[in-house]
Amino acid sequence: MDFERRFVTVDALRLERRAEGGGATLVGYAALFGSLSVNLGGFREQIEPGAFKESISEDDIRSLFNHDEDHVLGRLANKTLRLAEDAKGLRFENDLPDTQTARDLATLIERGDVSQMSFAFRVKPNGDRWDEDPDVLESDPNDDWHWAEELAKVHAWREQLIVEHDGVPVGFVQIIDPALEDSHYWGDCGPGLRAIDIWIGEPPHRGRGVGGAAMREAILRCFAAPEVTAIIIDPLASNTDAIRFYERLGFTFVERRMFGADDCHVMRLERGERT
């Protein structure tokens, strides 16, 4: 099987110069877990934690310039290349050799001309999973929420809830105050509003009333605050099943609105109008 290659913008890439005459070390993350790739020709990839663990422990991995074996920059076996998985991704440290290629590369990185790298890999049999669920593909085609990082953040304007069914996590609900949300996704909003996002995961957990129960609980949580007068949501205009679902809960159409590249059907539920 041929190697596949992926180009990535190296997260937190930095060049550490050692004492005079001691060379330099490249430090950064070669891959991030839980982050969607760019469109790779009709599909996007996400690397799961543990993807590199076996290779790091068993293979003599080399760092190469432009994947050229004539320009070795580091090697795992002699510890000039050090790789480790952590909660964020694949972290690397690469002690650069005293070669013209490495010196040129160090200069280019310090100047900011080079900020990307690529890694080559083979996927073991049954080592990948293709998600062709149309609801997943339709739910958020243009955004990468960087969940691995985002879920660790705590904001006063946001409440995040895991949906469980029979003790199994099956979905996720997010309630935000759109007037305080830091990206100003909803634009200029006055006080007294809440916005809800809801995701129900794998197909076996859909169509069983779990989403409806979760949404009704989220609505109750929003209106438990006396200052909240209405709730807003933004299903994709093409997601007619979701729109009908929200209509049954009492939401009414407000406007058709573009959020970035997403064509959305904005809906609103006033206090006292829920079903």
Describe the structure.
The protein is an alpha+beta fold and 275 residues long. The protein has 2 domains: 4-121, no CATH class; 134-270, Gcn5-related N-acetyltransferase (GNAT) (Aminopeptidase), CATH 3.40.630.30. It contains 6 helices and 14 strands. The strands form 4 sheets. A 6-stranded mixed sheet has the order 9-10-11-12-14-13, covered by helices on one side. A 4-stranded antiparallel sheet has the order 2-3-7-6, with helices on one face. Strands 1-8 form a two-stranded antiparallel ribbon. A hairpin with a 2-residue loop joins strand 4 (62-65) and strand 5 (68-75). The protein starts with a strand and ends in a 5-residue tail after the last strand.
Please tag this protein with its features.
alpha+beta; Aminopeptidase; six-stranded mixed beta sheet; 6 helices; 14 strands
Would you spell out the secondary-structure blueprint of this structure?
Layout: E1 4-9, E2 11-17, E3 24-32, H1 53-58, E4 62-65, E5 68-75, E6 81-85, E7 89-95, H2 100-111, E8 116-121, H3 134-139, H4 147-150, E9 158-165, E10 168-176, E11 193-200, H5 210-223, E12 230-233, H6 240-248, E13 252-259, E14 262-270
Parallel strand pairs: 11-12
Antiparallel strand pairs: 1-8, 2-3, 3-7, 4-5, 6-7, 9-10, 10-11, 12-14, 13-14
CATH superfamily of the largest domain: Gcn5-related N-acetyltransferase (GNAT)
* Low confidence ranges: none
**Count of DSSP E strands?**
14
Give the % helix.
10-25%
Strand order of the largest sheet: 9-10-11-12-14-13
Task: Report, as a whole number of angstroms, the end-to-end distance.
Answer: 56 Å
Q: Any idea what the radius of gyration is?
A: 24 Å
